[in-house]
User: What shape does this take?
Amino acid sequence: MKTLHKCPKCSSRLEMKGENIQVCNVCKYWTEAGTARLDSITILE
Ligand SMILES: [Zn+2]
Assistant: This one.
């Protein structure tokens, strides 16, 4: 499975949330592990 080690937006370390969601605590970028859609950025409120 392909996962990101760094946030593509701010280069901070990504943390796993749940089974396969990676979240950046700095800018709130998140992505599904295994998909890593760099062009689809969603902001968590
Ligand atoms: Zn970030």
